[in-house]
Amino acid sequence: MSGSVLYDAPGPKTVARHRVYNLAALVLVLGLLAFVAWRLYEENQFDYDLWEPFLTPDYISALLVDGVLQTLQMALTSIIGAVVFGVVFGVGKLSDHRWVRWPCWLVVEFFRAVPLLLLIIFVFYSFGIGDGFGAYWSVVIGLTLYNGSVLAEVFRAGVLAVPRGQAEAAYAIGMRKTQVMAFVLLPQAVKIMLPAIISQMVVALKDTSLGYAIGAPGLTRVGKSIYTEFFNQVPTVIVVALLYIVMNLILTAIATWVQHKLVGERKPLEVLQVIGKTDAGTGLTQAGPR
Amino acid sequence: MDDVFSSFDLVLRAFWLTIQLSVLAGVASLALGTVLAAMRVGPVAVLRRAGAAYVAIVRNTPLLVIFVFVFIAAPKIGWFVGTPFLLKGVIAVAFYTSAFVCEAVRSGINAVPLGQAEASRAIGMTFTQSMQHVVLPQAFRAVVPPLVSVLIAMTKNTSIAAVFGLMEATGRMRYFTNNNADDRIWIFLTFAIGYILLVEVLSAAAITLERRWSVAR
């Protein structure tokens, strides 16, 4: 730890004291973990019967194929839709025409402020149920609208982050507005935004779990069908959570790598949120709360 | 639609529950998150690691899975058995949000350049003075915007409690939607506007705070 604004560099006495604190903290943390493990043992949660499904090939493949794969597929589909939605409305918000700008602004703000679950439930009961397009697409549509509006803001910020001289130069050599946007601004903006798009995927991935509310396929539903059969709620939650964590950590690692590759050490694009309405942690390579 | 307006008190009561959930979970997650942030920026290495592990695990788990844990799995090991639903919802949301609060607070503290602390020490301020007059005022200002974003996201996240039997706004909308098939869009808009109002109140508060605290740099 090289320097902190919060305390001075420790001297020899303080270092010795910190060693004691470290030891005490270690005992505390291990004690806490041991308590949880003991609690689980006490309630017979380590019985083989409860963990059996996770060692049975059939259930493993159900978890991986119906769970992980479906979840990834939902997240990917919706993020592709969200990118398209984001480009359209992000560029729309930058339009010179008021009648384009304002509706775009309204749509983006609306979908960003409404809870995703409310949106998904509405879409499902209005269009998805019965002869509609089903739970899977309800979740995808909800995710697309929500993440699309977040990405619209990212795109807008990305386009604005391109140095002004670029657009001015393009206008000077006689390009039209559309050409400037399509050939000069967007290609440069995408490069800055790619990590943000990938970390938005982490958000989308976590949010696919909301499909649980309307019985959409995915990891959480596979988990539910396992614990309703085996009554092994605790092990199931642990396994499902671990799968989500692994997927998200891999995605985050990819986002970090892409960022180093494309943006370099420069400070990542800060999507300065009109306060409110946006999720926290738009700092790239971090998963937002939702 | 008449059904919704004739029983508008149900709508209001649902939003009251959403507000209760948000306020309680907000207070709890701010407290827990600040403790975690203190662990993560402190000099004790074990606590730093433990804080980092907590954040990595909780932040990458969907809130819904945490809800499943609190409402369905935990009673199996004798936890939260007789706990009221509201409290269980608050626990789940606060548990999840605290990781994000921790990150917001930590990034705010990290936003203060090291040179500020060094300079204040160099001109002879004591440690307390440097904290009180130089470091913390700057850190507070840097923390407010991301923290408000976290709280707004949390308010929206309380909607997940609807899946586990709490009749807050989203749960109430589901109930109305089931009974009034023709008016779905209006029901949806009514509840959406309710949420938007909540979000607006929060962000207006943040803007006021920021304006009051803003300093020329």
Question: How would you explain this protein's 3D organization?
Answer:
The complex is a heterodimer of chains A (290) and B (217). Chain A is an all-alpha fold and 290 residues long. Chain A has helices at 12-42, 48-51, 57-93, 98-113, 116-128, 134-161, 164-172, 177-207, 219-230, 233-262. Residues 272-290 of chain A have low confidence and may be disordered. Chain B has helices spanning 2-6, 8-41, 45-59, 63-73, 85-110, 114-122, 127-157, 169-179, 184-213. In chain B, helix 2 (8-41) packs across helix 5 (85-110) and helix 7 (127-157) runs antiparallel to helix 9 (184-213). Chain B is flat. The chains are: A mainly alpha (290), B mainly alpha (217). Chains A and B meet through helix 1, helix 5, helix 8, helix 9 and helix 10 of A and helix 3, helix 4, helix 5, helix 6 and helix 7 of B.
Major sheet details of chain B: none
Report the principal-axis shape of chain B.
flat
| Number of DSSP strand runs of chain B | 0
Largest beta-sheet details of chain A: none
Which stretches of chain A of 5+ consecutive residues score pLDDT under 50? 272-290
Task: Show the helix and strand layout.
The complex is a heterodimer of chains A (290) and B (217).
Chain A: H1 12-42, H2 48-51, H3 57-93, H4 98-113, H5 116-128, H6 134-161, H7 164-172, H8 177-207, H9 219-230, H10 233-262
Helix pairs in contact in A: 3-4, 3-6, 3-8, 3-9, 4-6, 5-6, 6-8, 7-8, 8-10, 9-10
Chain B: H1 2-6, H2 8-41, H3 45-59, H4 63-73, H5 85-110, H6 114-122, H7 127-157, H8 169-179, H9 184-213
Helix pairs in contact in B: 2-3, 2-5, 2-8, 3-5, 4-5, 5-7, 6-7, 7-9, 8-9
